[in-house]
Design a protein that fits this description.
19% helix; 7 helices; Alpha-Beta Plaits; alpha+beta; D-Maltodextrin-Binding Protein, domain 2; five-stranded mixed β-sheet; 18 strands; 302 residues; single chain
């Protein structure tokens, strides 16, 4: 497999939807900065779940590196570039392609930057990949006086850059989590991990299919009314509150102000009857939403 960098979550999703990759891995939430809004904004896409579905999730430790051109020292750095919040890695898996997306790093490395580069200006760019791009090309006054915060993987892709400092995030990870994904299945060996972590959704190009091994599902719900209260009982009543493990809200594509799209993630193991009752809960939820004039869909079960 070869690496092909991507700069946005939306492009990862589009690659899966268009069949350019079999699997896409996008960040859902970070243990320091919470929900990754780019992902939930992408999941508002009306093509979901008809053309792609959430088929799994994985949690990975996040490690940042301060990357510079060869020969650049800390004293040379006048500016640092990265995404403003959290560093995360996204992958698309295709027959011969892995697309890597790295986002959001400045916020998670604030302590390091304050202590080691207090006089360097901090600049936000669209992704850590875009930050690394600023280091590339022939040496110049610009790219020999700056640094990027990004994944160490970029150094393997570009011989003109090197790692000046590793593991610079404020929260340090503990043990590693080992991920193995093939075109036909995904396998995960999990070890306890502390510190800075990101949870990822695994997207596949298919309609969601029920599995007796599933432990979670997600409902996307857009009410005909505005505000979080618009969820009302037609949604919450169908899903036992004790089984709801996460609710996220993002603006919908509807022109009505504050008519938001709500994402409800459910822990199947906490449903009365567990897995055997989950499909009934999903069907009941979608039916109640439809009867209330809302738009609802199951984005996947995993």
């Amino acid at each position: 497999m070869t690496f092909k960098p991507e700069k946005t979550v939306r492009k990862v999703l589009e690659a899966v939807l268009h069949g350019d990759a079999s699997i896409g891995v996008v960040p859902a939430e970070n243990s320091t900065f919470g929900s990754v809004v780019e992902t939930y904004d992408a999941l508002v896409n009306p093509s979901l779940p008809g053309s792609a579905t959430i088929a799994g999730e994985h949690v990975l430790p996040i490690n940042h590196a301060l990357i510079v051109r060869h020969g650049v020292s800390t004293e040379d750095i006048h500016a640092v570039y990265s995404h403003p919040q959290v560093s995360i890695n996204c992958y698309l898996f295709g027959p011969d392609i892995i697309l890597i997306l790295n986002l959001q790093a400045l916020g998670q490395c604030a302590n390091y930057l304050t202590q080691n580069l207090p006089n360097a200006s901090k600049h936000e760019v669209s992704s850590t990949g875009a930050a690394v791009d600023l280091l590339l090309g022939p040496p110049s006054d610009e790219n020999t006086r700056i640094a990027a915060i990004a994944s160490e993987q970029y150094v393997k892709l570009h011989p003109e850059i090197e790692i000046l400092a590793s593991n610079i995030q404020d929260l340090k990870g503990g043990r590693k989590l080992v991920l193995s994904i093939t075109l036909s299945s995904s396998r995960l060996k999990t070890l306890t991990c502390s510190g800075n972590r990101t949870r990822f959704f695994v997207l596949t190009k298919s309609n969601w299919a029920w599995s007796t091994q599933a432990t979670s599902f997600m409902i996307r719900y857009t009410s005909p009314y505005a505000g979080i209260a618009s969820m009302r009982l037609d949604l919450i009543d169908a899903i036992p509150f004790s089984a709801i493990k996460r609710i996220d809200r993002r603006p919908s594509n509807d022109p009505t102000p504050f008519r938001d799209t709500i994402f409800v993630e459910v822990d199947i193991r906490l449903l009365p009857g567990g897995n055997s009752e989950a499909t009934k809960v999903i069907s009941s939820t979608l039916l109640r939403a439809k009867e209330a004039g809302a738009e609802a869909a199951c984005l996947g079960a995993w």
